Amino acid sequence: MTAPPRRRDLPVVLYAHPFELALGVAFTVIGLRAIFEGTTTPSVDQLPELPLLLYRAATTLGGLGVIAGLIALGRTVERASLYTVAGTCVAYSVLVVSVQGWRDGFSAAAITLAIAAACLLRALAIRKTERVILAQLRHANANPDVLRRMIDGRPPREGDA
Question: What percent of the chain has pLDDT over 90?
């Protein structure tokens, strides 16, 4: 009798952060396309030379940072990369509208501003989570009994939380 085929589960990061990971991949692909093909997208390629170079560098590094932060390097790297991507998107929105005008650049600017807002919200959520964890660790460190129970693997008492 043969064993049933093993079901392969997706990595947890895909379930926990699918949008952040997809955003990181998208920005990395944009940057790699700029490196290998010399083009990005029509609206980006119309930007002046220096903003174009900065946009490509920031989106590539930001995308790689988001992926690396989610997979291996931690939340600090992810948060910094999200701030980088958000800043890049806001700057891009301003440049698109200033170069193409409101009529032609509005939709691209609105989309990138929405992406920037999402990146900022995620970065702020990471910051809030880190603050809660830090407060709990400080509380546990200040109370030797709570710290001993944590080290021993016992649950906290009712009034310790």
Answer: 2
Q: 96, 109 in Cβ contact below 8 A?
A: yes
**135-160: per-residue pLDDT in tens?**
877 877 777 777 777 777 666 666 55
Q: Which amino acid is at 101?
A: G
DSSP state of 40: -
Structure tokens at 138: 């400080």
**At how many degrees (to 10) do helices 75-142 and 49-68 cross?**
50
Work out the number of other CB atoms within 10 angstroms of the CB of residue 26. 15
- Measured CA to CA, the distance from residue 148 to residue 156 in angstroms comes to 10
* Residue partners of 34: CB distance under 8 A and separation at least 6: 40, 56, 60
The residues spanned by each domain of the chain are 12-118
Q: Return the structure tokens found at 139.
A: 């509380």
pTM: 0.69
Q: Is the torsion defined by CA of 72, 75, 77, 78 positive or negative?
A: positive
